[in-house]
Amino acid sequence: MNDVEVRQLRYFVAVAEELHFGRAADRLGMAQPALSRAIGHLERQLGVVLLERTTRQVALTPAGEVLLRDARTALDAVTAAARRTQQAGSRSPRLRVALKADIEGGLLPRILDEYGVDDAALPTELVLGGFGAQPQALRDGRADVALLLCPFDDRGLDSEPLLTEPLVAALAATDPLAARTEFCRADLAGRRLIGGPAAGASPESGSEAERPPANLAEILSLVEIGAVVFLTPVSVARRYQRPEIAYRPVGDLPDATLAVAWPEDARSPAVAAFVRAACAVAATAGTDHGRPTAAEGLMGLAPNRL
Predict the structure, then answer these.
(1) Closest by alpha carbon to 94, among 128, 127, 137, 123?
(2) Per-residue pLDDT tens digits for 30-56
(3) Pick the CATH number of 6-85 from 2.30.42.10, 3.40.50.300, 1.10.10.10, 3.20.20.370
(4) Assign residue 161 a region: left if phi > 0, alpha if psi is -120 to 50, beta otherwise?
């Protein structure tokens, strides 16, 4: 069997993700007949059928599912190799830290201070992204280390937990549930949830609410008008107090765990220094993020007080 080329993998991944040759061709900027021929050549080269084609649909075969998974990994590795090589050869190398703005437990300034005094430290560059974007940024070489919430897709990554804190529900102060000191996930049934485990789902099910928009200001605006309920770490709630929003404990929600993650094959002294700094800061921060009591935030207090 001849070696499969990166170009062939890119063609296949586009078709496998779109499950439509026309859309995949548009995505790749090429003609559909040429793409069809390329996929047919790849199948003959590998000696397997990758896609079941009918006049109405395209579907992955078991062999195609395997190739899609491994092709994504291979393409990430190729992209990461190029980016990391460019970074290593830069005249001003930096440590690129991926995170979602405001979702770092309030630890980031202290971590950067601790990291900055290490002899292996490099100047830092923050790589901001939406919820769930950080693992991919590590895999494809856009970032060297990340702060992110568990659970996450940890393929090819190592990590250390830093801080565990309660999740609370942010809801409109006019919501009937805001009059209660605490409730459970089942009480949120029928509401649009973003940011955490879905209401009514068992902890073992692993089901999740919708991924929130990238912009926290947008999320909080939707909460204020009662359009969504936002499940968020208590550290975020403490930083974003608004009269129109009530933050309430949800008794049966799992806690949120903040972790530091990096590529499992990383050998950078700067990455190691950042991980050491993050762990050192987190070790002294646990007492600052306790679970709010049931009585807080209701009688005699502002509706959003934790």
Answers:
(1) 123
(2) 999 999 999 999 999 999 999 999 888
(3) 1.10.10.10
(4) beta
